[in-house]
Design brief:
This protein is an all-beta fold. The chain has a single domain, classed as TolB, C-terminal domain (Neuraminidase, 6 Propeller). The protein contains no helices and 26 strands. The protein starts with 14 loop residues before the first strand and ends in an 11-residue tail after the last strand.
């Protein structure tokens, strides 16, 4: 695929950062909060939002984070049998400014969707590397998901977004085959914003429902009813980010503060048996540095791929770590697609002179992505 550079139009933002339960005024760029949020809009919540909680403290003696840089760091890919060849290289496909790439989803025609949080739109990279804008006029569109039947969903973060220009509350919207709102209310009938935190990542089930992370794990049933799925039966609340269904749709896996948690999926879509699937590998990380954990994908053999601080980590069906694919910049989302579904795409990001920059990069695989699914 040939490389191309498209400059994203990033909306300026002066805004609002999540404090404990609510948002506090704070000027800035990426991470400043969605622009246009009414000062008192959370007063409508009958139940106070779940506190996001403070970020984890840096352990004593831990090294400072590396300086932000535009230049990509050097890396060496080591072979992972059946997954990737030694010496494989990432190639830039697209780049832009702001919080303007996330939620990668492969399309059946060899293309790749990506969401623009600040731009309120969804781009599509075709098999030749050309970019078109498939959906526009969204509401701080932070992530997206597609189920095995082709139904496409977007998470409109609205006022809870980290940046961008909002024009309403958060919602989960189906864009195709028919445009409709799947859910905009939390479990108790409050606006979805009242759940707490940010409407983050999602994965779509073939029954028309959708699992999403927002102050934990939640399920929006096909009828739009939202229910909380973690912290049941005495299990702890999870500090979640990325989420994905296994190819057989019998399990949901989420990232949670450096580890991976797995659930069983019931016939009614409800999750049960919350338990650890694996710990993220910390090879190459400094003492006290967390491994992170964000976007995820599966290949046709059921191997699980998840972005972490040290690269794309690969696990087998039983949670055994098979190896890590390093990348030139910080990793966000990941998906396997392309004309033969043998190309892995990832969103990478860096802060350059105080401004967020994003790339979509690709690397060839020996493995093949699953048929009939976006990731």
């Amino acid at each position: 695929m040939k490389s191309m550079k498209v400059l994203a139009i990033a909306a300026g933002s002066t805004g609002l950062l999540w404090g404990s339960a609510l948002l506090a005024a704070q000027p800035g760029a990426f991470g400043a909060g969605a622009q246009g949020r009414p000062a008192d809009y959370m007063q409508t919540c009958k139940v106070a939002p779940t506190p996001a909680g403070p970020p984890p403290a840096r352990p004593a003696g831990a090294p400072p984070p590396p300086p932000a840089t535009y230049d990509a760091k050097e890396y060496t890919v080591t072979a992972i049998p059946g997954v990737i060849a030694a010496g494989a290289r990432w190639s830039p496909v697209w780049n832009g400014d702001g919080n303007n790439a996330d939620g990668l989803v492969a399309t059946s025609d060899g293309g790749m969707y990506f969401v623009q949080n600040d731009g309120n739109q969804i781009g599509k990279i075709d098999r030749k590397g050309q970019v078109t804008w498939a959906f526009t006029g969204l509401n701080v569109s932070g992530s997206m998901a597609m189920n095995s039947k082709g139904a496409l969903f977007v998470l409109n973060r609205g006022y809870t977004g980290l940046s961008g220009t909002a024009h309403g509350f958060a919602s989960i919207e189906q864009l195709a085959p028919k445009k409709k709102v799947l859910a905009d209310k939390g479990p108790n009938g409050d606006a979805l914003d009242c759940v707490g935190g940010v409407l983050n990542d999602a994965v779509a089930a073939s029954n028309g429902g959708l699992y999403f992370t927002m102050a934990g794990v939640n399920y929006a049933a096909p009828d739009g009813k939202v229910s909380k799925q973690d912290a049941k039966d005495g299990n702890p609340r999870l500090n979640t980010n990325g989420i994905i269904l296994t190819p057989d749709e019998k399990h949901v896996i989420v990232t949670s503060a450096g580890s991976l948690t797995i659930f069983d999926v019931g016939a009614d879509g409800q999750l049960s048996s919350q338990r650890k699937f694996a710990d993220l590998d910390r090879t190459g990380l400094a003492e006290g540095q967390g491994a992170g954990g964000d976007g995820a994908a599966f290949d046709s053999n059921g191997r699980y791929y998840v972005t972490a601080v040290n690269g794309v980590q690969v696990f087998d069906k039983d949670g055994k770590h098979l190896g890590t694919i390093p990348a030139p910049r910080n990793l966000v989302s990941v998906a396997i697609g392309g004309p033969n579904r043998k190309t892995m795409y990832s969103v990478t990001a860096a802060n350059v002179d105080g401004q967020r920059k994003v790339w979509i990069e690709s690397i060839p695989l020996l493995a093949t992505g699953p048929k009939g699914r976006g990731k």
